[in-house]
Amino acid sequence: MDSRLPAIVSRLFHVNAGDLTPESGPTTIAAWDSAGHMNLILALEQEFGIQFGDDEVGELISIGAIHAALARHSVTS
Questions:
Q1: DSSP track, 18-58
Q2: Burial level of 72, CB count in 10 A (0-12/13-18/19+)?
Q3: Residue stretches of the chain with pLDDT short of 70
Q4: Angle between helical axes of 34-48 and 63-72 (0-180°, round to 10)
Q5: What is the pLDDT of residues 37-58, one digit of tens each?
Q6: Can you tell me the distance from the alpha carbon of 58 to that of 10, in angstroms, rounded to the nearest whole number?
Q7: In this structure, is the dihedral angle defined by the CA atoms of residues 59, 61, 66 and 68, taken in order, positive or negative?
Q8: Residue 6 host element (H or E)
Q9: Please, what is the Cα angle at 50 between 19 and 21, to 5 degrees?
Q10: How is domain 4-72 classified at the CATH fold level?
Q11: What is the pTM of this model?
């Protein structure tokens, strides 16, 4: 995983990118609430030039899940 995904999460939720793990998500990042989740989705779509399906958005609840979704979209995160 390159630095773009952790950098986006770090910027949006004001956490140290180096502290993020595949398990990091709303249960471990206090600022990752529903509004933050939508901002994250929009930032990811813009950064990677993709669009997540409605069914995917609710499943993107950890760094690992996002990384897997990006891989399915054939982008490097």
A1: GG--TT-STTT-TT--HHHHHHHHHHHHHHHT----HHHHT
A2: exposed
A3: 1-2, 76-77
A4: 30
A5: 999 999 999 999 999 999 999 9
A6: 20
A7: negative
A8: helix 4-13
A9: 15
A10: 1.10.1200
A11: 0.90
* Six token digits for residue 44: 């990811």
What does the domain layout of the chain look like in residue ranges? Answer: 4-72
Return the amino acid letter for 16: N
- Nearest-5° Cα angle at 61, 57 to 62: 130
Q: Say how far apart CA 30 and CA 28 lie, in whole Å.
A: 6
Instruction: List the structure tokens of 43.
Output: 């930032």
- Show the tokens assigned to 31: 């600022």
Distance in angstroms (rounded) separating the CA atoms of residues 34 and 18: 23
